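#struct-queue
[09:14] JT: dropping the first one here, sequence first, then the structure tokens:
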Amino acid sequence: MPGPMAGRTVLVTGGTNGIGKATAAGLAALGARVAITGRDPGRAETAAAEIRADGGPPVEVFVADMSAQAEVRRLASDVLAALPRLDVLVNNVGGFWNTRRVTVDGLEHMFALNHLAPFLLTHLLIDRLIESAPARVVTVSSDAQRMGRIDFADLQGERSWSGQRAYNQSKLANVLFTYELARRLRGTGVTATVLHPGLVRTGFGAEDPGRIQRMITPFMGLMKSPEQGARTSIHLASAPEVEGITGQFFANRKPRRSSRRSYDEADALRLWEVSAGLVGLDTGTAGPLAQPRLDAS
């Protein structure tokens, strides 16, 4: 018997482990045609085989290091060639590194991966999402956004660095991006929501942990499993009751107020324009995401 997501196609970025893999598995179990992204071909193929629902179609794999803009662009091209429709984009990829790192594009790594990658990928796939409407863009943020501040004078952390501060900023950027995206997509049939998955038991931040990551390690057993952490992502990607809901922040599958700073439309517009410049997008050209929307949400 076909599931409630039968006939729908979903792309989950960072789908080889943790919340992303659990999200992809949950949506495959609901009958969706699922595609995932990952950096390592072997790990991605293994994850795809494990995600595949019993009797369901194979899970498609796209390999890309999404901290690099050229790879995000190649990824989008590959997705457009392989997927004739795209009903849901789950911007799940992200990470934490306590030490400042720079990408091949000369950008701070967390800002590039956590914010600029979903910003650019969403732009590159938006026409396909609109063609497939009603469609959804779901972005995984964190309650770290509540401690975030967008430091426009030092977005890349060149003058002053803190891994946790940079992470908080990137997660606030996810929320500002989602709210601005929702404003610009009005009338297209594509919605944009953002979520906090909760404290989840994964290898997040383990490669280069900060003080907070080291502090919570002894309490890993009390944290959510990846499957529990994926529930809100799956809900926003699939649930009929959120059809048409846009520009909202969710936690535990329920709408919730995000931080006060996240509702600053001037900051959202400024971040959008700065981000477009950093990824080489022309905000003045025609298109569904081109023109600023200053009306109230």
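[09:21] JT: and here's the second one, same format:
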Amino acid sequence: MKMTFLGTFALAGLALAALACSTETSVVTPDQQAPGVSVSGEGSVFGEPDVAVVTLGVDAQADSVGAAREEAATAMDAMLSALKDGGVEEKDIQTARFSVQPLYDFTDGKQVLRGFSVSNIVTAKIRDIDTTGDLLDAAITAGGDLARVDSLLFTIDDPSTLEAQARVDAMEDARGKAETLAQAGGVGLGDPRSISEGGGAVPLTFEGAEALQAADTARSPIELGELEVRVNVQVVYGLE
């Protein structure tokens, strides 16, 4: 009986030791991702712009800050009045930049203050786009020699209808590419598993803005052209 107890005890000890020496780490691996094909598609629709956005203002230089600021303020008030008289609403005019800077000359290697420069630049949205040329001429004339035009671009105020059509075209483009790839691979094409989008209206910039400042009597020619609304999509389709 004693021998049996000791034998049982020994066997139990060996079993515990074996368990202690055989610690096992289980690694759970995720299921493999379902097969699919990732393609990009692009849709492009053209439309006429209906809004012009112009960035313009004044630059004044004088011996003192006060004199430069006064000249700039007078010219800027005249330009703003011309824009408002032409139908631009006050809510569509916003100050883009206002700066006061010293001007220096270098004489005999020394920096000599020669005056100050005051710049006042605004961005104006012209909703009656057909009046763009006349409004710019009026504003530039009002600002005189201090007037400057930094940029002019055309855009579409509400491109949602064009964007919707561009999305449809982009998805059709992506579907066509995916079907070609699936057919070439000898598999069937399933439903889309994910869709992401990018794109929007591409504004047109009028690159001849500096020529507007040279117009004294002739009307500045402004061509509106067309805007492209482009949408890009990235689609992942399942495979069957």
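[09:30] RK: nice, looked through the second one.
[09:31] RK: The chain is about 35% helix and 40% strand.
[09:31] JT: good to know. Confidence is low (pLDDT under 50) at residues 1-32, 207-217.
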